[in-house]
Specification:
Domain Pyrimidine nucleoside phosphorylase C-terminal: 425-492
Number of helices: 17
Number of domains: 4
Number of strands: 18
CATH topology of the largest domain: Pyrimidine Nucleoside Phosphorylase, Chain A, domain 2
Strand order of the largest sheet: 1-5-2-4-3-6
GO molecular function: 1,4-alpha-oligoglucan phosphorylase activity; thymidine phosphorylase activity
Largest sheet: 6 strands, mixed, barrel
Helix content: 40-55%
Keywords: Glycosyltransferase, Transferase
EC number: 2.4.2.4
Distance between the termini: 73 Å
Radius of gyration: 24 Å
Protein name: Putative thymidine phosphorylase
Strand content: 15-25%
Length: 495
């Protein structure tokens, strides 16, 4: 038996265990690094990837160290006794091998794979093999099966209501923080909109990261349910309530490999909406030269796939193809995006018009789901709720209900302006490049890091005029971002 030692090591989303190489009572042949082991205690067990340790200060003989994820998931106190054994090879890996060979998998095979992924029985290499095989070819029926399986393995919320709405964007457009405006508008109208969102993985900020500037987003299920019952809405991090947990595991491998196929996108998004208890969804698909979807033909293909899978799942979906040619709003990064959102909700004169207009359009589409609003009056109702201050009041109630942040986050104090290299007109902004620069500045981990856009597409600029301002909370982050911006600022300017 070994005693648990909690180690402050973040190996998200992987469960990782640490065993001393010497004096652990096991031979090297029994337990090798990067192999899966089963850890069993009195009332719980988990699977974890093993790392062997040569530093006795980290883990001593007779101990097993658990990273934060493994310790939390096992749920036993530090010092509790556990036993370990080699984890069996998942039987579903045979289906993965078949997929690599080009076979089409049936629903039961895909369900078994997803259960094993969610149960952390696969190594990152094995997950990568599955994802690459699926990226090569995945049928519509396989996509549907994966969506169902991903929704089934985690928690499922049921709001016991015939109309539960949601709004989602496929991402890829910096500053597109419309959900934080749509949700309070819809809540002020009285529809149920329990918005659970992810944290950023490759973007400068996700909805959860931005909302966290204003309020607590790490809510337990009972807290989330109580808030929705009172306020009709929530803006929370979905990871805490365990919605489609397999998706989080898959994404952690997809993103470094830059795998983002339409089929996997559909399964990821719709599985989480199904798990969150949504019945009606407005989906924003931005289309642009540096967006995730780059042409109208791609957009049409993706829309048809979403519509087909949603229909089979019983989810009513309204898909909107929107302009993804440039960032939306001015701020990119949690604090700067939260500033823009609140400016729109307060009806400030200098609030970003593009963010306001985009959010109103999407809110109107969501409100059109309400049968009481006849003749497509959703947009007019959304405009009314924003202009009257009702949406702002709903947002303030939501912030209070989730727990207002005790301290005010501010933009990073380290600042560098990026200026136009010539006179001319801005004809294009590279969304991907701008996002990379903002991330190198420290967003979203550093809440105040990011980019403040000064000029958008169509602006006439003079040589030396500021195009945007980089904010960072450290000189190092500012240096990294500035170096990338000097290589290519992400702006195309023609005379």
């Amino acid at each position: 038996m070994l005693k648990i030692r909690r180690l402050a090591i973040d190996t998200h989303p992987e469960n990782t265990a640490f065993l001393p190489r010497q004096g652990n009572g096991y031979s090297a042949e029994q337990f090798q690094a990067l192999r899966k082991i089963r850890i069993t205690g009195e009332s719980a067990e988990i699977l974890a990837t093993l790392a062997l340790v040569d530093e006795p200060a980290l883990v001593e003989a007779g101990e097993i160290g658990l990273g934060e994820q493994a310790f939390r998931r096992l749920g036993l106190p530090e010092g509790a006794a556990v036993s370990i054994e080699q984890a069996p090879v998942p039987a579903s890996l045979e289906s993965v091998r078949r997929k690599i060979d080009g076979d089409t998998l049936d629903e039961s095979e895909i369900a078994a794979i997803i259960r094993d992924v969610a149960g952390h029985r696969y190594s990152p290499m094995e997950i990568g093999a599955f994802l690459v095989a699926c990226a090569g070819f995945m049928s519509t029926e396989e996509t549907l099966a994966m969506t169902r399986a991903m929704a089934a393995v985690g928690n499922r919320l049921d709001w016991h209501a015939p109309l539960v709405v949601d709004k989602h964007c496929i991402g890829g457009i910096p500053g597109n923080r419309t959900s934080m405006i749509v949700v309070p508008i819809v809540a002020a109208h009285g529809l149920i909109i329990p918005k659970t969102s992810s944290r950023a993985i490759t973007s400068p900020s996700g909805t959860a990261d931005t909302m966290e500037v204003l309020a607590n987003v790490d809510l337990r299920e009972d807290e989330l349910r109580a808030i929705v019952s009172r306020e009709k809405a929530v803006l929370a991090w979905g990871g805490r309530v365990n919605l489609s947990p397999a998706d989080d595991v898959l994404i952690s491998v997809e993103r470094p490999l830059r795998i983002d196929t339409f089929e996997q996108m559909v399964a990821s998004i719709l599985s989480k909406k199904l798990a969150a208890g949504s019945t009606h969804l407005v989906l924003d698909i931005p289309v642009g030269p540096t967006a995730k979807v780059r042409s109208q033909s791609e957009a049409v293909r993706l829309r048809k796939l979403f519509e087909h899978v949603a229909d089979k799942l019983g989810l009513v979906i309204d898909i909107v193809l929107t302009d993804g040619s440039q960032p939306i709003g001015r701020g990119i990064g949690p604090v700067l995006e939260a500033r823009d959102v609140m400016a729109v909700l307060r009806n400030d004169a200098d609030a970003p018009e593009d963010l306001r207009d985009h959010a109103l359009m999407l809110a109107g589409r969501v409100l059109d789901f309400d049968p009481a609003l006849k003749g497509g009056r959703g947009f007019a109702r959304a405009l009314e709720l924003l202009a009257s201050g009702a949406a702002l009041e709903a947002m303030e109630r939501l912030i209070a209900a989730q727990g207002r942040q005790p301290a005010e986050f501010k933009p990073g104090a380290h600042i560098q302006e990026i200026c136009a290299p010539r006179d001319g007109r801005v004809i294009a902004i590279d969304c991907h490049r701008i996002a990379r620069i903002a991330r190198l500045a420290g967003a979203p981990m550093d809440k105040g890091a990011g980019i403040d856009l000064i000029c958008k597409v169509g602006a006439e600029v003079r040589k030396g005029q500021a195009l945007y301002r980089i904010h960072a909370q450290s000189a190092t982050g500012l240096g990294f971002a500035h170096d990338l911006a000097r290589e290519d600022a992400g702006y195309e300017i023609v005379r």
